[in-house]
Amino acid sequence: MKKFYCYLLLILVGSTSNLLAQKIKMEFKPGLIVEEYTPEKSGIHRELPEGYSQRMLEEIQNRNARASQAQQSVKAGTQVVVTYETVPPADIKTIFERAANLWATSLNSDVTINIYVQWKSLATGVLGSAGASTNVRNFVGSNRLNTWYPVALAEKMAHKNLNGTNPDIVATFNSDFTDWYTGTDGVPKLNQIDLYSVVLHEFGHGLGFIGQVGLTSDKSQAAYGYPGIFDQFMFNSAGAALMDTTKFDNPSATLKTQVSSNSLFISSPNIVRLNGEKGKLYAPTSFSDGSSIYHVDQAKYKVGDPNALMTPQIARGEVTRDIGPIVLGAFSDFGWSSSNIIAENYNDTEDVSKDILFTAKVYSDTLINESSVKLMMAIDKSILSATSMPLVKSGNTYTYTLPKSSTTRKINYYWTANDAGGKKFTTPAEAPVIAGTNFGSYFDFTVGADTVKPVVIYANPLKYIFNSQTTVTLPTLLTSDNIGISAVYMEYSINGAAFVRKDFTKIAGETFKYSNSFNFTSGQLKAGDVIRYRVVVADAAKISNIVYSPASGYYDFKVLALADPVASYVQNFDTTPSADFFLKGFNLTQAAGFSSGALHSVHPYADGIEESYDGVGGTDKFTNSDAILLKPIKISADNPKITFDEIVLVEPGEAGESFLNADGTVNRSFFDYVIVQGSNDQGKTWYNFANGWDSNLYSTWLSKWNSASDTDGNSTAIATSTLVKSHEIDMLASGKFSVNDQVVIRFRLHADVGAHGWGWAVDNLKIQAPKVDPILAIEPSSIAKGLQVSPNPSSGLLQVVYEQASDLNGIALRVIDLQGRPVFNQNYATQGNRFDQQVDLSYLGSGTYALQLQVQNQVVLKRFVLVK
């Protein structure tokens, strides 16, 4: 099943009853860092035209005076500040600052642009990387709704700092690269890369020549979350906008075709005006991460072309001192030349005793039609019924005072104006209604008695703790309210005793996050204790609105106790070792279609519903099913191995995806998985013995998973014993555990919200089991008297005959492999003193096995060989 995540971003704001309303919340996301100019991208397909170096030398010499003037103009206009992790040599530092100054003379912002430069060793073949440190959407002053802007551009449009002391652009360049040309007044040799050109290019990415479109992990489709401002200006050869989802689904193979068509363009009024035509983008038929889309076409814009700066390659000896008309035109229409209305989005309030002052500042890089500035307002009506309010103007500030009223009122409003050319701009962006949709963009708030309950997102993963634990941290709680939160606490009880209140603490630096923990005294908890609790959130209304989590009843979890450590543990689950395990989502049972007992997950296991990924609310959740061995194992140096037989029919991840990301987190594209984990601090922290696995591990499992499904894409295939595979885990391999550690072991099945299936079965568990021949270990001295197995060797069809003097009264027949694992188990009714039965073992592989008969209290055994 193809997986489509429902990543629900947490928007904790007041609710609204108007179906057209859409509260706008400013959001940030990490910037894209684009690596450029590896040797294979450093000019193999670009050549210097004849006489290029001499012409460029003359041009650079003629620019010296202009560069000096430009530096003076920066001091009075746009400020670009370059800071360094480690200050580079003076000539290198001069290049960074001259490149920054050239961009400053081409842009217009009343907010300082901060660039953080790292001049340091990088991997061989990497010259540099750069990008916006973060992107912002839905900020006051933006012109496009739900569109990501690089933070430097967002700050220019918002007319304020949005990211505190953090840099706006992060750029890194390889100090070990030996072929840099670091002059500014000459021309590089034919084997050198011009550092100034590379720096100018990379800063351009950080300022806005970048977007959000890429390929899905399986490379079959192109996709984006919300578009970047660059993406809003991409068109195909027929003039269709790539962000038009009525033409190009997101994600889709059709969109991939467009971005790898070699016929992709960036177009805007100012691009056409300055360049004379739309700009052609680099979109090779084989999509290249880091190069495709967000560069201009290198075949069209050759060395020396005014638009050559933002091609994906640079030739050795190439010098680019021009930003170029395509970039300048694009940046102008992205918002570097724009008109913006900066106004406040008021929160709900219960204070009806005051007039309400509405204020907006209007900024423009052109002329404003002052008579067009309007505050559109609707009170207790749809925003579509909004009318213009009378404004008072003072400079670029416009105000309106709404008289107080004792009645409760819902106020919907937005600001709008036109520049002298008639171009409309609004705050919030695209107010009041987004074309082609049934929803709008506007501000709203309520004045009067508050009846809105807090928004609370809390997922409780606690199902068990150990009696040795004294501090148990609760999952993070996220909450907000339209007028504010007054109290967040939990009420808990141990074994039905009186409830105790314990307040949550707001996490420093966070807007919505609160933390809490249980703090028990040593020895306070006993095995079997049950702890119940609920979370209570109250807002700051005069009559508090209260939310409980869970909505009714309580969460509860059980206290577990560990047995004394053991050197080994062997279990075939033919009897039910209930006291050895704590089970959540598992059973010790003999499942239908199996001849003996085993450790089984629920069949089928359910989709994830209990916990939220990384604080994300909504439906993007998961569930962990756990089987915990309550006998800790003391790890030995001789045989620190866990072996078991298993069947894994859990949702396979996308083809080729690894279990872990580069940062060590679990790859979400791995989907569901099973894993074995250990804890050497009595259950406080857990580590993976090895990476998780799924149905992709064996082709037989994957084929079985795919063999049957329902209309929702869930696998309905049912496992049989023919799917059993052996698994071995080295407890020391991860590096998290050492010899003599006392380790608690946990079997876990992780299920997300996507497809589900049959699940996991574990049998013949051996942890640090003695290394002996298991057949010899159980073989009686009177082996095989009266027992015949033929033919021997066999291809799989055996005739088993056993005879004794007295009546048999039933036979139990079992086949064991050389690892001591049962591979066949069946009971037979008998009459008289003779047993004669054909047994089909053709599903087993070649090897030596033992056939074991239990007759009343006697066990007889015979070795046999299968040859395939």
Number of DSSP-assigned strands:
55
How widely separated are the two ends? 36 Å
Ranges where pLDDT stays below 50 over 5 or more residues in a row are 1-24, 35-44, 69-76, 772-783
- Approximately what portion of the residues adopt beta-strand conformation? 25-35%
Q: What is the helix content? A: 10-25%
What is the number of helices?
A: 9
Report the structural category. mainly beta
Largest sheet: 6 strands, mixed
How would you characterize the overall build of this protein?
The chain is mostly beta strands and 868 residues long. A hairpin with a 2-residue loop joins β20 (392-394) and β21 (397-402). The radius of gyration is 35 Å and the shape is globular. Residues 1-24, 35-44, 69-76 and 772-783 have low confidence and may be disordered.
List keywords for this structure.
mainly beta, 12% helix, disordered N terminus, Secre_tail, 868 residues, 6-stranded mixed sheet, 6-stranded antiparallel sheet, T9SS type A sorting domain-containing protein
Topology, pairings included?
Layout: E1 27-30, E2 34-36, H1 52-76, E3 80-84, H2 90-106, E4 113-120, E5 128-132, E6 134-137, E7 149-150, H3 151-158, E8 169-174, E9 180-181, E10 193-194, H4 195-207, E11 214-215, E12 222-223, E13 234-236, H5 253-259, E14 264-266, H6 269-275, E15 279-280, H7 325-336, E16 339-343, E17 356-364, E18 368-379, E19 387-389, E20 392-394, E21 397-402, E22 409-419, E23 424-427, E24 443-447, E25 455-457, E26 464-466, E27 471-473, E28 477-480, E29 485-494, E30 500-503, E31 505-506, E32 513-515, E33 517-519, E34 530-539, E35 546-549, E36 555-560, E37 569-571, E38 581-584, E39 586-589, E40 598-601, E41 611-612, E42 621-634, E43 641-649, E44 673-679, E45 687-688, H8 699-706, E46 725-730, E47 742-751, E48 759-767, H9 774-778, E49 787-790, E50 797-803, E51 811-817, E52 822-828, E53 834-840, E54 847-855, E55 858-866
Parallel strand pairs: 3-4, 4-8, 9-10, 26-36
Antiparallel strand pairs: 1-6, 2-5, 5-8, 6-7, 11-12, 13-14, 14-15, 16-17, 17-21, 18-19, 18-22, 20-21, 22-23, 22-24, 25-28, 27-33, 28-32, 29-30, 29-34, 31-32, 34-35, 34-36, 37-48, 38-42, 39-40, 40-48, 41-42, 42-47, 43-46, 43-48, 44-45, 44-47, 49-50, 50-53, 51-52, 51-54, 54-55
Helix pairs in contact: 1-2, 2-4, 6-7
